[in-house]
Hints:
Layout: E1 6-7, H1 21-33, E2 37-40, E3 49-56, H2 63-71, H3 77-87, H4 95-99, E4 104-113, E5 126-137, E6 144-150, H5 157-162, E7 165-167, H6 175-194, H7 220-230, H8 237-251, H9 255-262, H10 266-271, E8 275-278, H11 283-294, H12 312-320, E9 324-329, E10 335-342, H13 346-356, E11 360-362
Parallel strand pairs: 1-5
Antiparallel strand pairs: 2-3, 3-4, 4-5, 5-6, 6-7, 8-10, 9-10, 9-11
InterPro entries: DUF6630 (IPR046582), DUF7821 (IPR056723)
Pfam families: DUF6630, DUF7821
Domain DUF7821: 23-198
Amino acid sequence: xxxxxxNLFGRNNDPKSIVSFDVIDKVYSHLYxxxxxxxxxxxxxxxxxSVSLYSFPSSFDHDEGRAEIKKSGFKNAYExxxxxxxxxxxxPVSEEQMLQELEYDYIHIQFYTEPTPEGKKYLKHVLHxxxxxxxxxxxxxxxDFKMLYNNSYFLDYTRGILDTESIDINExxxxxxxxxxxxxxxxxxxxxxxxxxxxxxxxxxxxxxxLLPEEVEVTQGTFEEFIKLVSxxxxxxxxxxxxxxKLLKNFKKGHTEYHxxxxxxxxxxxxxxxWSSDWKFDPEDAECFISEMIGEDLNFDYPEETYSHDLFxxxxxxxxxxxxxxxxxxxxxxxxxxxxxxxxxxLRILELSELTKIxxxxx
Length: 363
């Protein structure tokens, strides 16, 4: 059974915005009536997007949940819920309602974006959590919602949700929120496309594109195209065919095993015009190795005492003038394996990276 409380704010139902009650209620209906959680992939989004329906108190009614509640200083899940309700100006659950063991649902959406330019020094991706609670505005029926947010991992789920903050999607407080809030609109459109939810014609869609990846068969040609693009075509054709055949064979062995196997392929990618460096490198090293990779002298201006990832903006600016972009294979270690791509090929390289599971990072 669901029970919601009155608040004193205007409804979140802008007919032009996809972040509106009418849309989110349709997502909730699917979660409530069909499947209470799902994950899916979207174009341009790192890893999967997670969408889940949880409920107070039942989603916390297990040993780990009860231990987390106690550790956070509360007696039961309802007390945690009331602490959250304070943040979004929703009336508390009363003792009488607790005794009735009513359920209070909410939606939790998780996805990654690229970090801010400053954040790229430390992170490759930023996790965003959007938590949506339903409520009533000037009505006895559920007709509104409130949102909370943070960009931390919920290692302790109870502590994680308690650490969220109330947000207005139209008023981000910092650059990380600007990125996350803007992308949330596109994510919500992707969720609706994935669930085949028909959107009102009045909504101004964040994207006019198909947001879901098409079903594409990965073939030897897929790997051949990837190798040719990351090497900018400067690779022997027979070697391309031989290595592509090997990569496809490994790909078909399965996802987990493939990630172990692909670690052994970095020698090949380094041999076709790449630069392996630990996370510390000097500007002189960058100029030397990148010049060697592009076959022409590259010099770039940078402030004194600038090293390693702090050099990326200056390197990229110099390369962009030549139609290039510096990228790196994700070796899952503390080292970079840099390569230079033609600027016009970057998006296609990222698409092929998703298909082949050979992970590539923009810097």
